[in-house]
Amino acid sequence: MDGDWRARRAVVTGGAGFVGSHLCDRLREEGTEVVCVDNLLTGSIGNIAARSGDAGFQLDLRDVSEPFDVPGPVDLVFHLASPASPHDYARHPLETLRAGSHGTANALDLAHRKGARFLLASTSEVYGDPLVHPQPETYWGNVNPVGPRSQYDEAKRYAEALTTAYRAALGVDTVIVRLFNTYGPRMRPKDGRAVPTFITQALAGEPLTVAGDGSQTRSLCYVDDTVSGILAAAASGHPGPVNIGNPVELSVLDVARRIRALCGSASPIAFVDRPADDPGLRRPDIGLARSALGWQPVVDVDKGLAMTIDWFSRLPAAG
Question: What is the pLDDT of residues 171-196, one digit of tens each?
Answer without folding.
Answer: 999 999 999 999 999 999 988 899 99
